[in-house]
Amino acid sequence: MKTPKKAMVLAAGRGERMRPITDTCPKPLVQVAGRALIEYHLEGLARAGIRDVVINLSWLGEQIRAHLGQGERFGMALQYSQEGYPALETGGGIFKALALLGEEPFLLVNADVYCPFDFSSLGLTGGDLAQLVMVPNPAHHPRGDFILEQGRVHAGDGERLTFSGISVLHPELFRGCSEGAFPLAPLLVSAMGDGRVSGIAHQGLWSDVGSPERLAELEAQLSRR
């Protein structure tokens, strides 16, 4: 297993549940403890030795590009995958960016989560197409997403955990896809059915910053640290 050399940060979402904040500020630039949310991810990726990062853009994307520039202050090179509006959903956005990501596995991070995770601990082994970081189910998502058993992820019956929005994907996962908007989850479920998805559990701090209330809760948590 080796840490991927490239990463993609998903930053194209509208952030409907964060309105009115996101009417004028894209969610990746929402401030958490005095810093833009997306900056925490970029710093974490840099600590893991990742220097090439692709960021997809849609809603107010020009603000993200202006704020981050070419990535010099993070010690990395940023490239942008511009989408129209509305965005292409998770799967379609990644598929559009594959030409920038290359043919090797890459790290994928949702810009709208907060998680001080060690990205250097991730990587694919064998013939896996994906590795997912799973977290305990938050109050707003009590049923979870997938099952993690003995390092493997599947979608059958059992106690589910929540997909954190942090993963490693192989471009082969998107074989047969076409341009346009489509979700990522069905591709993951298909790969799970073939036994090609691994997982790791994260018990530390994680927050899906999906509403003003959750943002306030996260700020309160960080203030107590």
Structural description of this entry:
With 225 residues, this protein is α/β, with parallel strands linked by helices. It has a single domain (6-223), classed as Spore Coat Polysaccharide Biosynthesis Protein SpsA, Chain A (Alpha-Beta Complex), CATH 3.90.550. It contains five helices and 13 strands. It has helices at residues 37-47, 61-68, 89-101, 185-193, 212-223; strands at 6-10, 31-32, 35-36, 52-57, 77-82, 106-110, 113-114, 130-135, 147-149, 152-154, 162-169, 197-201, 207-208. The strands form four sheets. A seven-stranded mixed sheet has the order 5-4-1-6-11-8-12. Strands 2-3 form a two-stranded antiparallel ribbon. The chain is globular. The chain starts with 5 loop residues before the first strand and ends with a helix. The model has no long low-confidence stretch (mean pLDDT 94).
Task: List strands and helices in order, with pairings.
Elements: E1 6-10, E2 31-32, E3 35-36, H1 37-47, E4 52-57, H2 61-68, E5 77-82, H3 89-101, E6 106-110, E7 113-114, E8 130-135, E9 147-149, E10 152-154, E11 162-169, H4 185-193, E12 197-201, E13 207-208, H5 212-223
Parallel strand pairs: 1-4, 1-6, 4-5, 8-12
Antiparallel strand pairs: 2-3, 6-11, 7-13, 8-11, 9-10
- Under the CATH scheme, which class? Alpha Beta
> How far is it from the N-terminal to the C-terminal residue, by CA?
33 Å
Gross CATH architecture = Alpha-Beta Complex
Shape, per Cα inertia axes = globular
Number of domains: 1
Our estimate of the beta-strand percent is 15-25%
Into which percent range does the helicity of residues fall? Answer: 10-25%
Let me know the largest β-sheet: 7 strands, mixed
Which stretches of 5+ consecutive residues score pLDDT under 50?
none
Kindly state the number of beta strands. Answer: 13
By DSSP (H or I, 4+ residues per run), the number of helices equals 5
**Structural class estimated from helices and strands:** alpha/beta
Gyration radius from CA atoms, angstroms: 17 Å
